[in-house]
Design brief:
Lipoprotein; Immunoglobulin-like; alpha+beta
């Protein structure tokens, strides 16, 4: 019984520490995050990706955080669908019949200590991303891309 209680307490402590580290990095604008890099690219006017960071949650689960410009409005983010396509040289790890993983999603702006983010959780066995293509398109079913696309290459998870 004592060992079960000890395992439970250790599990709670580990999850709590993981959340604290995630929040810490988001509060600091990804400054100290090992798997982050500056981007500084505009998708459309007043919608800029400043930085990109990845958090390894274990068991092939990750959180991707896009740090956006300080003056972005939630309505601007919610006006588009965010397209994100991951390519890898590990073709056997990609969905059958596809040459990329699609993480397209509608998003909500998240703010941590005055830093604005789009945060997307995903699962993949891929450890090295050949390229990540980020772009905006109309809400709903894809009809046409809006603005610029941003391509980031050689990302290690």
């Amino acid at each position: 019984m004592k060992s079960v209680l000890l395992v439970f307490i250790l599990g709670v402590v580990l999850v709590s520490c993981e959340r604290d580290m995630l929040t810490h990095h988001l509060n600091t604008g990804l400054e100290e995050l090992e798997h982050s890099r500056p981007i500084n690219e505009k998708l459309v006017s007043n919608y800029e990706i400043k930085k990109l960071g990845f958090f390894n949650l274990g068991h092939n689960k990750y959180k991707m955080a896009l740090l956006l410009n300080d003056n972005i409005e939630p309505e601007m983010v919610e006006a588009y669908t965010l397209g994100m396509h991951i390519k890898s040289d590990s073709l056997q790890l990609l969905p059958k019949g596809k040459n990329y993983i699609s993480l397209d999603t509608t998003v909500t702006l998240k703010t941590f200590n005055n830093h604005n983010y789009i945060i997307r959780e995903f699962k993949t066995p891929i450890k090295q991303i050949t390229s990540l293509r980020i772009f905006l398109y109309n809400l709903g079913v894809y009809k046409k891309r809006e603005g610029n696309q941003v391509v980031i290459r050689n990302i290690g998870l």
